[in-house]
Amino acid sequence: MFASALLILVPLFVGFAVHLENRRLLTWINHMLEALVYLILGLLGISLGQLEGLADQLNRMTGQVLVLVFGLLVANVAGLWLWHRWQPMTLASAEESRSHVGYRRLFLGAAKPLLAVIAGMALGHWLLPALGWIEDVASGALMLLLLLIGLQLRNAGLSLRRLLMNRQGLGIAVTLALTSLLAGLAMAPFYDLPLMHVLALTSGFGWYSLSGIVVGDALGPAWGGVAFLNDVLREIIALVLIPLIIARQPAMAIGYGGATAMDFTLPIIRRSGGLDTVPVAIASGFILSFLSPVLMGLFLAG
User: Which of 7, 62, 78, 189 is the most exposed place for a label (fewest CB within 10 A)?
Assistant: First the structure.
């Protein structure tokens, strides 16, 4: 049972162990990562499009996604509110309402992965014959993706020790992870899945480009779609919440975006909350980016 977890974790740790100094190679890795993400999301879409009874499957997925999104939203917000009460975070340079946030560009960026899956679904449902090799190709691409993610995290110019010593960032990350798992325990009766697999669904922490792939590879394209949509919606909700609440609840604003706090939602965190939020957001996002594949791999092996 643990062999599947090792398949997920080994490439990640191998990549994280390798230090690179060639900037051109690192740039190539970043471009390769983006291409792989869209390739695998497209393959996930093709698999979804070729499911028997597609309309019924999509109806079922809608209910499953809504339960997951709402349960995680309530648990995460409550936990992050309690963390802020215990360890208040004050901002010296909040820029809410004074800075221009490129919402159109951000929402278009969030829409791209959805379009990749939808395009794959259209191809799989109307144009392509049944392709038995899609899962093998997706699995191989997943291993390469995790290797490159490990390389990217290791060579991002961030000190792991300094990130772990950022008290606010570490606290926010741990709070989000624990409340997500508690939400999984509470929501498990609503899903026709083993408890460990439900916990895997709640361990994406907003990293849709990984959760949909990993869960889909282990549980099939329908559950991969549920994981993917849950984490895409987390990112979209975070884009709306951050500028509205960061001045009063910075930990909640930074934390709810999960792993995206170190990349996709970082610009809006910086513009809405000021420079004080940047180290916290990077630390929280980095820790959750590392925890997510580890937890998903372990839970899916159970």
Answer: 189
Q: Is 164 exposed, middle or buried (0-12, 13-18, 19+ CB in 10 A)?
A: middle
In angstroms, rounded to a whole number, what is the distance separating the alpha carbons of residues 77 and 36?
Answer: 32
Q: How far, in Å, CA of 49 to CA of 141, rounded?
A: 20
Provide the whole-model pTM: 0.83
Q: What are the sequence ranges of the domains in the chain?
A: 2-301
Mean pLDDT score across all residues of the chain: 84
User: Distance between the two ends of the chain, CA-based, in angstroms?
Assistant: 7
Exposed / middle / buried, residue 60 (Cβ in 10 Å: 0-12, 13-18, 19+): middle
SS3 298: helix
Give dist(CA 213, CA 265) in Å, integer: 21
Radius of gyration of the chain (CA): 19
In degrees, rounded to 5, the angle at the alpha carbon of residue 96 between the alpha carbons of residues 95 and 101 is: 95
Q: What are the helix (H) ranges across the chain?
A: 2-16, 23-49, 54-86, 103-122, 134-154, 160-164, 167-187, 195-201, 208-219, 221-245, 250-256, 266-273, 277-301
